[in-house]
Specification:
9-stranded antiparallel sheet, disordered C terminus, single chain, alpha+beta
């Protein structure tokens, strides 16, 4: 559709005016149409609200490729959702890379407190893991969890944190991850 929407007017201008005018018309229409499609697509890609969390900014791409991410906030928590193609070269497209990033973001002295399987009902064929980080007693007591899922086509990373740890914070972050529209992962109008 993009090609037809831009090619037809460009052909008319090329025939009636000049080749350069036709190229300019083609590029102008293609650029505007692409921006419109991306704006509409990203709105469907990452919903505005997930449970008690709200999207706080426009989605972003990672390293200029097809990988994308977005931030969600709730009054006492932050969650960063990033989706990578299975063949992505981004650092966090691997579990080891995502774990290293999460450890740095968890703060000074952070270490893995637990690493256990994490399942989501809508992701029957995907492997998921939840890694919880703790910090030294001198640190603020922030709670940071990394959720990482692997499917045949995608790698999904959710890095979530709250200023205070505990069972309630853990439950809240788990609920956010399970509330994501997983059944749309990989569809044209869904979660990437």
């Amino acid at each position: 559709w993009l090609l037809l929407m831009a090619l037809f007017p460009a052909a008319i201008y090329t025939y009636t005016d000049s080749l350069w005018t036709g190229v300019q018309v083609f590029l102008g229409i293609a650029f505007v149409t692409t921006l419109g499609l991306l704006w509409a697509f990203w709105g469907a890609l990452f919903p505005k609200d997930v449970g008690d969390f709200a999207r706080v900014a426009q989605p972003y791409n990672i390293d200029g490729n097809n990988d994308a991410g977005v931030e969600y906030r709730q009054s006492s928590a932050l969650a960063v959702l990033e989706i990578f193609a299975a063949d992505s070269a981004a650092t966090d497209a691997t579990l080891d890379g995502a774990k290293a990033t999460a450890g740095r973001k968890a703060g000074e002295g952070a270490r893995v407190a637990s690493e256990q399987p994490f399942s989501v009902a809508a992701l029957k064929d995907a492997g998921g893991v939840k890694i919880t980080f703790t910090t030294d007693a001198k640190a603020t007591g922030a709670h940071t969890s990394l959720y990482y899922f692997t499917t045949d086509r995608w790698r999904v990373k959710v890095l979530a944190s709250t200023p205070v740890g505990g069972k309630e914070a853990d439950r809240m972050l788990d609920e956010f991850v399970r509330a994501l529209p997983w059944n749309t992962l990989g569809t044209d109008s869904g979660l990437h």
